[in-house]
C-alpha cells in the first residue's frame, strides 16, 4: 500500500475563481474546474488531451486513463465532479469526488478519512478528560486518595453568606414576657391611647381612689394595738410520760 504524503492531502484547502461564479452552468463547469490555478486538477488527464485536440467529451469513453466527469448538478449552487480511472468504455474506477458550492471547490473526504477523523476526535476528547481528572487527584500515604478541585476554594469564597435563622421563642419565654408586660402596664398605666392607626392620641383619664377619712385611719391604727395588748391564751402543758408495763 503506497504511503500518502501530507502535501498531497487536499482535504483542508479550497479554490475559487470569482470571475466564473456568475456564469457557472452544467455546460462550462468542467472548463471552470480545468483552470490552471485549480490545485485539484491533474494536467495529465484525458480531459486535457481532448481539450488540446478540440474534441468533444464523448471521446473520453474511448480512451484509457484518468478523466473528470460531471456526476451531479443542482443549479445554480451545487455541482459534483468525479475523478476516475477509465479502463474500458464500460469499466471505470472512482478515485475522488469534488463538490462545488457557490463557486468554491472542495475535495470530498473518503470513508476511511471520515472514520479516522471521528475516531481521532473521540480519542482526543477522552484523553483530555482523563488528563484533567488526573490533575485534580491527590494522594498522601496517611490519607489516601482524594479530589482537590482548583475552583473549589474560589466558589467557597464567592458563595454568598446566608444569615442564620433566629430560633423561635419557647412557650415559657412568651408566657414570661407577657407576665412582665402586664406587670409593667399595671405599675405604669398609659397616659395616651390611639383609637385607630393614623389618628391623634387621646389622653387617658386616670380615676383617683378617694382617700379614707382621718377617723377611720385612726381607728384602724387602734385595733391592731388592742389586739396586740390582749393576753395570749394559756398554752397546753406537754403530755405526761407513762411508764411502760413490763
UniProtKB/TrEMBL annotation:
UniProt entry tagged with the keyword Endoplasmic reticulum: no
GO cellular component: mediator complex; nucleoplasm
Record-linked Gene3D superfamilies: Mediator complex, subunit Med6
Segments of this protein annotated with the region Disordered: 191-246
Compositionally biased tracts (Basic and acidic residues): 205-225
Pfam families xrefs: Med6 (PF04934)
Keyword terms of this UniProt record: Activator, Nucleus, Transcription, Transcription regulation
Compartment(s) of residence: Nucleus
Record InterPro entries: Mediator_Med6, Mediator_Med6_met/pln, Mediator_Med6_sf
Main location: nucleus
Assigned protein family: Belongs to the Mediator complex subunit 6 family.
Its biological purpose: Component of the Mediator complex, a coactivator involved in the regulated transcription of nearly all RNA polymerase II-dependent genes. Mediator functions as a bridge to convey information from gene-specific regulatory proteins to the basal RNA polymerase II transcription machinery. Mediator is recruited to promoters by direct interactions with regulatory proteins and serves as a scaffold for the assembly of a functional preinitiation complex with RNA polymerase II and the general transcription factors.
Assembly and interaction partners: Component of the Mediator complex.
PANTHER family in UniProt: MED-6-RELATED
Protein name, UniProt field: Mediator of RNA polymerase II transcription subunit 6
Organism: Pagothenia borchgrevinki
Upper lineage: Eukaryota, Metazoa, Chordata, Craniata, Vertebrata
Amino acid at each position: 500500500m503506497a504511503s500518502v504524503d501530507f502535501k498531497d492531502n487536499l482535504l483542508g484547502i479550497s479554490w475559487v475563481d470569482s470571475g466564473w461564479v456568475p456564469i457557472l452552468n452544467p455546460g462550462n463547469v468542467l472548463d471552470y474546474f480545468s483552470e490552471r490555478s485549480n490545485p485539484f486538477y491533474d494536467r495529465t488527464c484525458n480531459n486535457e488531451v481532448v481539450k488540446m485536440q478540440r474534441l468533444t467529451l464523448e471521446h473520453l469513453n474511448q480512451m484509457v486513463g484518468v478523466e473528470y466527469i460531471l456526476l451531479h448538478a443542482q443549479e445554480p449552487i451545487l455541482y459534483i465532479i468525479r475523478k476516475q480511472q477509465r479502463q474500458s468504455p464500460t469499466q471505470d474506477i472512482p478515485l475522488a469526488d469534488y463538490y462545488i458550492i457557490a463557486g468554491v471547490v472542495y475535495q470530498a473526504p473518503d470513508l476511511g478519512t471520515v472514520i479516522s477523523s471521528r475516531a481521532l476526535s473521540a480519542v482526543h476528547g477522552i484523553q483530555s478528560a482523563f488528563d484533567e481528572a488526573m490533575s485534580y487527584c491527590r494522594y498522601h500515604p496517611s490519607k489516601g486518595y482524594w479530589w482537590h478541585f482548583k475552583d473549589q476554594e474560589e466558589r467557597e469564597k464567592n458563595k454568598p453568606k446566608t444569615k442564620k435563622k433566629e430560633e423561635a421563642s419557647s412557650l415559657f419565654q412568651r408566657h414570661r414576657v407577657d407576665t412582665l408586660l402586664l406587670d409593667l402596664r399595671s405599675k405604669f398605666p398609659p397616659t395616651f391611647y390611639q383609637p385607630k392607626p393614623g389618628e391623634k392620641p387621646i389622653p387617658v383619664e386616670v380615676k383617683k381612689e378617694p382617700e379614707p377619712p382621718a377617723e377611720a385611719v385612726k381607728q384602724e391604727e387602734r385595733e391592731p394595738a388592742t389586739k396586740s395588748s390582749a393576753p395570749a391564751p394559756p398554752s397546753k402543758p406537754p403530755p405526761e410520760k407513762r411508764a411502760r408495763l413490763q
